[in-house]
Amino acid sequence: MDFNFQNPTRIIFGWGALGNLRQAADSFGPGRILLVTGKTAMRKSGVIGKIIAELGPERVAVFDQVEPNPSAATVDRGVEVCRKEKCGLIIGLGGGSPLDAAKAMAVLVSNPGRVLEYLEGKSLKHPGLPLIAIPTTSGSGSEVTPYSILTVPEKRLKFSLRNPILYPRVAIIDPLLTVGLPPRQTAATGLDVLAHALESLWSKNHQPLAALFAERAIELIFQHLVRAYRTGDDPAARTGMSEASMLGGLAISQTGTTAIHPASYPLTFDFGFEHGLACAIFIPSFLRINRPAIGERLARLLRILNLENLESLEGKIQTLMRELEAPICLRQIGVKEEDLYRLAERGFGKSSALNPVDLRREDLEKILKEIY
Ligand SMILES: [Fe+2]
């Protein structure tokens, strides 16, 4: 089998790993730093204050305006601040949203124009500012991927930048930072990892190294997610989920996601349904649909998980979702039957073509009816 594997992000992982930030930042020189983060969570937890004190207040400009599912406009504003403050390094701190926004800002600083032009196809030519990514959830894996997913509200859609220059230079993955994450977000982000790992495994772009990461991520999710959900301060559970998230990110950094991610976006956009939960609701149906195209890979996964057949894997996933109190049908989140046609129509994106089984609008509509 032929494949390429490259992931240039340096990973510093461990309980308390945030203590390495100063040294990592200094390795890029003494210049000013833009700290990109969300509106409240990290300020409340005191992490922002700690980081500023550690790096020196005179050195740090803060952009804390990143909303969930960040918009292209937010990225453009951050780029302006970065230029005005003459920053030479960006630190992204938070869940997938601040990290994705920070990644886009880092490359837009050195590529002229607005981010929307690049989301619509203009190519990114110049390497961006160095970026240190510090995840505070265990889900997106954005700290080790070359993607930035952004929302364009006028078009009612999510778009992505995909380019190796988006890889963070350093990922500091400190499970301690996920301890305060509320149960619902722990569940949602953890299920996002499950979607990443499964989609990477069954992607048309699948490859053996990414598969190793994906398989291990799935094992860790079954071992640790329910515990992290119920007992948020359990170090083993939080560390296990941070590891799973990183491995899921490493897997999709090579293969991308497939049809579940674009199918989930309209649910997040129109119904405010959290990203990971919106992905997870599709998993059982896609497992069944994709089964004929992934025989050997599925058999290997079943062996690793000590399961007999697809039905037992499906059962295990359903039990997990029940234990996490994750919605399992669309009615639970306010979708009406007359919405399904439109959701199917809008549920396709670049990565849909990587699904192992080709899907048409009618097929997605059938799935949506099944989970309605
Ligand atoms: Fe995701």
Textual characterization of the structure:
It is a single chain. The N and C termini lie far apart (40 Å). The protein folds into two domains: 10-177, Rossmann fold, CATH 3.40.50; 181-370, Dehydroquinate synthase-like, alpha domain (Up-down Bundle), CATH 1.20.1090. Strands 1-8-5-4-2-3 form a six-stranded parallel sheet. It has a two-stranded antiparallel sheet with strand order 6-7. The chain has helices spanning 21-26, 41-44, 47-55, 72-84, 96-108, 115-119, 183-202, 208-230, 235-255, 260-271, 275-280, 283-290, 295-304, 310-323, 340-345, 361-370; strands at residues 10-13, 32-38, 60-66, 87-94, 131-135, 147-152, 157-162, 170-173. Strand 6 and strand 7 (157-162) form a beta hairpin. The protein contains 16 helices and eight strands. The protein is α/β, with parallel strands linked by helices. It binds fe (ii) ion (FE2).
Q: What is the CATH topology assignment of the largest domain?
A: Dehydroquinate synthase-like, alpha domain
Report the CATH C-level class of the largest domain.
Mainly Alpha
Helix/strand order, N-terminal first: EHEHHEHEHHEEEEHHHHHHHHHH
Q: Supply the CATH architecture of the largest domain.
A: Up-down Bundle
How many individual domains?
2
Indicate the mean pLDDT.
Answer: 96
Percent range for helical residues? 40-55%
Lateral arrangement of strands in the main beta sheet = 1-8-5-4-2-3
How much of the sequence lies in strands comes to 5-15%
Number of strands: 8
Q: What oligomeric state do the depicted chains represent?
A: single chain
Determine the structural class based on helices, strands and strand pairing.
alpha/beta
Q: Termini, distance in Å? A: 40 Å
Largest sheet geometry: 6 strands, parallel
